[in-house]
Design a protein that fits this description.
By secondary structure, this protein is an alpha/beta fold. It contains 14 helices and ten strands. Helix 9 links the parallel strand 8 and strand 9. Helix 3 packs across helix 4, helix 4 runs parallel beside helix 6 and helix 10 crosses helix 11. The longest helix has 15 residues. The chain is globular, with a radius of gyration of 19 Å. The mean pLDDT is about 95.
């Protein structure tokens, strides 16, 4: 196991600044790694950790964390209305003096706004743009496929793309069946990405293969499983083998699979550590070993979470009204 101390250096910054990119179907180049801002400086009231523990302790502000992330060399920032911190992210961007053209900014519109309809979505995009201190987003995503509402919401995003406020459109937490529903509604701009949880402990290969065959690039959240698997024997064994950390093994698995890797941390040394995944390669056998860590229990838990979250924070919160009960779980 590596015992290195991780400090931002010119070399580590250049690695991030020159990180690989993944081509999207519209020709945009998407950085292969980004900095996630969920629970950075703010914990939403309906976040699972806040609900279960009542813990909303903030270690550092979002501005402080994003300033550090940008200094480390991260240029893709993964944001959202729900995260409640876009104004502080915008302050960090402004303070950095980094040219907007050198940044790749993604945001997501939340369920409450999706339910309220097109006018609310337009207002929310304008608010996100103002908070982030930019006049366009590189990507704007539907955060959850709210039953009976997500198709209309996506078509509102198409209108906003035509206005130049959004460069590319995408979705998040979409089951394969949600995508089929959306596509069959008739779209001018197909989703470029689908952001879902992806890590070796929730590797839904059938779903991912379906999206990739459609030309949809997968963004991975919880790439590091919130640090909850760092002591797993397989990760410890591979970390020792490659002289890397458990986080770096998980991150390398993600990028080697061709997914967009979105780690997050409030600690600068972790930001540096998490990004050091481009200087080694996992063997085919080790990749297969990691692939096999997903259990049936994990996919069953995913289905329960999906059913709970598509109506989350809407007027139908706590019900299964309109929820697809038969989705591809693996």
């Amino acid at each position: 196991m590596s015992t290195k101390v991780f400090v931002a250096t010119d070399e580590s910054r250049q690695t991030l600044l020159n990180c690989p990119t993944i081509p999207l179907r519209d020709g945009m180049a998407h950085p292969a790694i980004g900095f996630g801002t969920y629970k950075v400086g703010f914990i939403p009231a309906s976040a699972s950790s806040a609900v279960s523990s009542g813990d909303t302790t903030i270690q550092r502000t979002a501005k402080e964390c994003v300033v550090d992330a940008l200094d480390c060399g991260y240029r893709f920032l993964e944001c959202a209305q729900f995260y409640g911190n876009e104004s502080q992210v915008g302050e960090a961007i402004a303070e950095s003096k980094i040219d907007r053209s050198d940044l790749f900014i993604c945001s997501k519109v939340w369920t409450t706004t999706i339910e309220q309809g097109p006018d609310a979505i337009r207002e929310q995009l304008d608010k996100s743009l103002a908070d982030l201190k930019t006049d366009y987003l590189d990507l704007y995503l539907i955060h959850w496929p709210v039953p009976g509402k997500h198709v209309e919401a996506y078509k509102t995003l198409e209108e906003l793309k035509r206005q130049g406020k959004i460069r590319g459109l995408g979705v998040s937490n979409y089951a394969w069946e949600d995508y089929v529903e959306l596509k069959e509604s008739g779209l001018e701009f197909l989703p470029l990405v689908n952001q879902i949880e992806i890590n070796p402990f929730l590797y839904r290969s059938k779903t991912i293969d379906n999206f990739q065959k459609e030309g949809v690039v997968m963004q991975s959240y919880r790439s590091l499983r919130d640090g909850k698997a760092f002591d797993h024997p397989t990760l410890l064994e591979l970390a020792s083998k490659y002289d890397k950390t458990a986080a770096q093994i998980l991150g390398r698995w993600c990028v080697q699979k061709g997914f967009i890797y979105v780690p997050k941390s409030v600690k600068k040394e972790r930001m540096v550590e998490n990004a050091q995944v481009f200087d080694f390669e996992l063997s085919d056998q080790d990749m297969s070993t990691l692939d096999a860590l997903t259990t049936n229990d994990a996919t069953d838990i995913f289905v329960q979470l999906y059913r709970k979250c598509v109506n989350r924070d809407t007027s139908k919160d706590g019900t299964l009204e309109g929820v697809k009960m038969d989705i591809t779980k693996d």
